[in-house]
Q: What sequence folds into this?
């Protein structure tokens, strides 16, 4: 049989993987090494050369898009219809299995799948029916607990409270949730996998049938499997199955979702005769970018080990820019983007990556001001995020009690016992009396509501009045900070366990940074700083990000970038405490995952990579000084070209308490001890803090925020500043 069409486009390692014998095979596929090609050609090889029936193949991917692509490419390669092939996601294949064997799975024939939002609404109704305080037992926290247990293959009956009252209540709520779902024939996403696992585990004959049928198991993104997914695969493989799994332990970045990189090592223990093939030839990036990625990831100890290489060009050096602060960083990125676009390149070929969603705000402002279209990949613009809109609604009510839209948005957020029926009574009164919801709420609280509802409404009205009164004399940033805390939003989202809740808290704190850096007085109208800021936020949200098909710069988190590639990449905010994230620095496993995330970021770049970090960063409402990320130091110096800022500003090891800045110290910031955040004293303006620095020699000047005189730009030669 002529096997040329299947193998002729493959390199040696890819051919070795595709033609591997009918034994368990682990393919370690580096970034850009053609793993999808290997999976597709493996399926084609088995069918066309080994004579395996298409019915004997089961292929698992992690997205429906990947499943559709694999199905299409196999069909194109073999020129046969493949609709009958079992190619899909874990959830899709589990659903298909349960529809066929609903009776054995203990489900009604017409069972209904509920998505994450439906599941959350169900949990909220459950808490309400049980009269459980949802401010203490936060619905999202309950949802996270339930799904976490299911991902580990655990039912409520399997759990022990270990004498912990909080855990005991969580287990009780899990049990009640199971009862409701069983009664209504409802199946959530985690249940699909757990129920499918139990179906095979508890039905030996059925399992034996599928083990005979699906001898060859092809699995993509194996490093991202969680406990129940791996357990499901092991059951199906049994002692006679031939699992062919493809993954990259260096790109395992979803531990917070339950993914276990350890499965790559466990696989070889569970299947002792495993053949290991490494795909190390990269078809995406330059040699310089690959060498940098290899050097960084080599610092992780618990990895299979591989070394990416390319036959392509050496490529240009990685540029590292040391910014003064986050605005200087954004200005640098915008400037290089302009150069890129002016050279005739597509905007869509450039991506800006960051560790935290909150970092996007300053970058977005810069892009808007530069009139460069952009799109936040897989997310919303800063001022369009739900938690930001919640905070702005509180601020609008503090400024204008008759803002009905803001009133309805937050009257019961966080939940405070004001239900839909109470809100509808307010609406009816407001319509009948041509007044605002605020006025309606005050009017009906005394005679048309139950005492419980009336107390809840009055408590909300008093909260807004108190917030406005307490912040009347505060600066804008302090108003915002007070609002996000006093409203309960910060505590509310802190109780939302997992990455999503943490991100929302970070975004709310970043709103304080936005207020702190906002410059009022830009409008010709007489407006308070708060009203100006609210108008600014509304206008920015109204700009609307570019459509998916428009030629625009791509903004995204490092996590969202996985699987994508761009000719030009900026990795921003590369500072210890931000990336690697502060919560991971002291945790060896967490630090290794952060390093894998850095590896993913670096390998997104095809031709040009910029890495930026700032000495001072105002993020999450706080000013901080940080060292450059340790990951930068792990890149060999020969692959780096440092892009010097306008003035080299550094933090001295020791500065005398009161020493004048003399003219002989002007030429280099490092010599004169000037640093961002340095406290200084001026003969006329008093004490202040250095915010920025530019120019050199006799023209060097600093921006100082004085406690009593505000912000001033001063020429260092004539300012006679004293370092404090």
A:
């Amino acid at each position: 049989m002529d096997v040329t069409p299947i193998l002729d486009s493959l390199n040696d390692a890819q051919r070795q993987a595709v033609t591997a014998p009918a034994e368990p095979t682990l393919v370690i596929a580096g970034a850009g090494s053609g793993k999808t090609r290997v999976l597709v050609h493996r399926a084609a090889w088995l069918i066309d050369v080994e004579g395996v029936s298409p019915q004997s193949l089961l292929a698992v991917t992690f997205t429906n898009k990947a499943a559709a692509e694999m199905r299409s490419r196999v069909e194109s390669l073999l020129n046969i219809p493949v609709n009958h092939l079992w190619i899909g996601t874990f959830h899709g294949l589990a659903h298909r299995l349960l529809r066929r064997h609903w009776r054995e799975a203990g489900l009604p024939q017409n069972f209904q799948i509920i998505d994450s939002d439906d599941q959350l609404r169900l949990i909220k109704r459950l808490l309400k029916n049980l009269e459980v305080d949802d401010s203490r037992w936060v619905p999202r926290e309950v949802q996270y607990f339930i799904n976490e247990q299911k991902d580990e293959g655990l039912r409520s009956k399997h759990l022990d409270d270990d004498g912990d009252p909080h855990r005991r209540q969580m287990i009780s709520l899990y049990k009640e949730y199971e009862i409701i779902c069983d009664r209504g024939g409802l199946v959530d996403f985690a249940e699909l996998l757990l129920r499918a696992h139990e179906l095979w585990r508890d039905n030996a004959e059925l399992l034996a049938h599928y083990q005979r049928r699906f001898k060859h198991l092809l699995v993509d993104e194996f490093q991202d499997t969680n406990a129940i997914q791996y357990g499901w695969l092991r059951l199906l493989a049994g002692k006679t199955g031939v699992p062919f799994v493809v993954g990259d332990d260096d790109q395992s970045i979803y531990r917070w979702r339950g993914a276990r990189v350890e499965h790559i090592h466990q696989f070889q223990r569970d299947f002792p005769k495993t053949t290991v093939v490494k795909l190390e030839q990269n078809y995406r990036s330059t040699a310089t970018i690959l060498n940098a990625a290899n050097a960084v990831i080599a610092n992780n100890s618990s990895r299979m080990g591989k070394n990416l290489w390319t036959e392509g060009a050496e490529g240009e050096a990685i540029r590292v820019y040391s910014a003064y602060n986050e605005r200087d960083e954004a200005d640098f990125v915008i400037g290089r983007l302009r150069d890129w676009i002016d050279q005739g390149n597509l905007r869509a070929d450039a991506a800006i990556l960051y560790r935290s969603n909150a970092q996007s705000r300053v970058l977005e402002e810069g892009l808007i001001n530069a009139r460069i279209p952009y799109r936040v990949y897989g997310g919303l613009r800063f001022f369009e995020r739900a938690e930001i809109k919640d905070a702005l609604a509180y601020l609008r009510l503090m400024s204008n009690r008759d803002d009905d839209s803001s009133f309805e948005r937050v009257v019961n957020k966080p939940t405070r016992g004001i239900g839909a029926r109470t809100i509808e009574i307010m609406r009816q009164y407001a319509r009948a009396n041509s007044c605002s919801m605020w006025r309606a709420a005050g009017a009906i609280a005394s005679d048309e509501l139950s005492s419980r509802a009336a107390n809840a409404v009055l408590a909300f009205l008093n909260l807004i009045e108190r917030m406005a009164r307490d912040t009347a004399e505060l600066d804008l940033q302090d108003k915002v900070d007070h609002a996000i805390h006093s409203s309960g939003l910060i505590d509310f989202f802190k109780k939302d366990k997992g990455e999503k809740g943490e991100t929302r808290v970070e975004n709310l704190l970043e709103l304080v940074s936005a207020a702190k850096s906002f410059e009022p007085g830009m409008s010709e109208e007489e407006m308070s700083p708060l009203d100006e800021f609210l108008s600014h936020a509304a206008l920015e949200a109204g700009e609307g990000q570019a459509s998916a098909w428009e030629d625009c710069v791509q903004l995204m988190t490092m996590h969202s970038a996985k699987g994508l590639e761009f000719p030009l990449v900026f990795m921003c905010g590369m500072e210890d405490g931000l990336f690697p994230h502060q919560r991971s620095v002291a945790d060896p496993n967490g630090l290794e995952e952060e390093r894998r995330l850095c590896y993913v970021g670096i390998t997104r770049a095809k031709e040009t990579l910029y890495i930026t970090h700032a000495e001072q960063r105002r993020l999450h409402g706080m000013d901080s000084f940080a060292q450059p990320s340790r990951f930068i130091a792990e890149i060999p110096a020969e692959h780096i070209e440092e892009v010097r800022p306008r003035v080299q500003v550094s933090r001295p090891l020791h500065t005398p308490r009161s020493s004048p800045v003399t003219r002989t110290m002007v030429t280099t910031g490092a010599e004169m001890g000037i640093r961002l955040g340095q406290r200084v004293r001026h003969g006329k303006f008093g004490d202040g803090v250095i915010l920025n620095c530019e120019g050199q020699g006799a023209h060097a000047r600093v921006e100082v925020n004085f406690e009593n005189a505000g912000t001033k730009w001063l020429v260092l030669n004539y300012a006679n500043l004293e370092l404090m």
Remarks:
- The chain has 30 helices and 23 strands.
- Residues 112-184 form a domain with the Arc Repressor Mutant, subunit A fold (CATH 1.10.10.160).
- The CA atoms of residues 251 and 600 lie 6 Å apart.
- The first helix runs from residue 4 to 7.
